[in-house]
Amino acid sequence: MRIEIAPSILSADFSNLLKDIKKCESAGVKILHIDVMDGRFVPNITIGPVVIESLRRKTKMILDTHLMITEPEKYIEPFAKAGSDWLTFHIEAVKNPSALIKKIKSLKLKAGISLNPATPVSELSKYLKELDLVLVMSVNPGFGGQGFIPSALKKISDLKNMTRLAEVSAKRAKNKNVKISVDGGINFDTIYGVVKSGADIVVAGNSVFRSGLSVARSIKKLKMSATKK
Length: 229
Prior knowledge:
This protein is of the alpha/beta class and 229 residues long.
């Protein structure tokens, strides 16, 4: 089983952001997770397209942009133009997810939907065939460093089964693979259950940038912990 670790720059050192990004690249990271918060959908404010544009000039890693914002439909084009590769919006923030998925894909980006801890996976059933990514929040979104919510494990498992059925029913199993990403409270202890439940991508912030180890050693330890309990 291959698991991708996607470091969240929310926990990086913003006074030396480029240095931390280069450490991720050196450690073989392929996906960089970027949390965008507007102070409305979640009680925190982070970054906008201008930062992503700057990052795009400095790295070839996949920029996985997580829009924790209200009215994300208004900002799809600016984030796409800035250089995002993947755009994920919250199902709780939109009235017409299908239209937004189509908009993202029309801009040649991967489209994802995120679920808050209180949102059941059944909310996604009608959209799975259209999606490239599902992001399961295993903490209440807004701030890094929170504790993992154990009920997320069943959601991951249920989603894994749902995505398999969606791929088969669409007769695109060979070329359509909905990735399951998990974000929140991931550390050397919780990652095993997350991966065992079916996660393909694990977003990690503090356990990558603030573990007391180097970025490379932290990522290596996370990958080892994912397969050995």
